[in-house]
Amino acid sequence: MATMKDIARLAGVSTSTVSHVINKTRFVSEEIAERVNNAAKELHYFAPSALARSLKVNRTNTLGMLVTTSTNPFFGEVVKGVERSCFLQGYNLILCNTEGDNERMKSSINTLLQKRVDGLILMCSSLEGERLDAFEQYPDIPVVVMDWGPMLFQSDKIQDNSLRGGYLAAKHLIDSGHTQIGCITGPLIKHQAQMRYEGYKRALNEASLTFNANWIIEADFECEGGYQAFKKMHASGSLPSAIFVCNDMMAMGVINAANELGIAIPQSLSIVGYDDIHIAKFMTPSLTTIHQPKYRLGKAAVETLLKKIKKQTQEVQVVQLEPTLVERNSVRSRTE
Known about the structure:
This protein is an alpha/beta fold. The chain has three domains: 45 residues, no CATH class; 132 residues, Response regulator (Rossmann fold, 3-Layer(aba) Sandwich); 131 residues, Response regulator (Rossmann fold). Helix content is 43%, strand content 16%.
């Protein structure tokens, strides 16, 4: 019966490399992986099943991830970072959509835990502030959450500095000479939306600018929400010269509504978005926005989770990634 040593000898690699290829525990180049797999076939080597390995080491080399279903490509860009990082680390990923349904989310969490995933990544704010009994039943399975507010269960956290991002957006408009600045927020019960709005208010207060209640409208982080919010703002009377729209999806809706109303961007209205999704630079005009390091958010979530799985740390970790301003063509300077 062939062994890994026999495969290593035939393929001209080390035994550890053979192990990594067969068990998928580390990234190995395609050329070397092909040599190892061909040698294994030639020697009629049968790898132990994933179930047998998981029972032996009490691990499945599988992570679970839950996301809120949305048309926003932001989520897909973060998931890409998670998937790629899992592959490079030799882990499989089971991805579940919650579709914004609390009961579906709880059911998905229970299912993943019962399937013996080694750890969980949660990227949906619908359970913000809720207690989850499932985590008390599986206390040894580490959890990482992304961009939630206060939680009633222990977990590590990966977050964007939304307060800083909101401040940067409004400050850019102020530095561009705007004094009448509105804000279309996300749902203010959500931590991210509240922090971006607080950053906007901090910048305006710092510049001693006044707030117009008609220019501050709460929406839902979706294109339709941005579209309807701008229509509502327009119907209330005069418009500001600039708006901070708290994500790029809503900014797309605002641009669409403005075009319908014959309002030129940026000549008559300047806009700053948030997230810097891939299509932001292809809008007309290209969107000035706050960049979230989406791929790095996903990568950081996996790395943080693996530290707990491998028991490299027991401390609760909070990893905060800093946003940056990306200047494009949706803001008109009034200082020239």
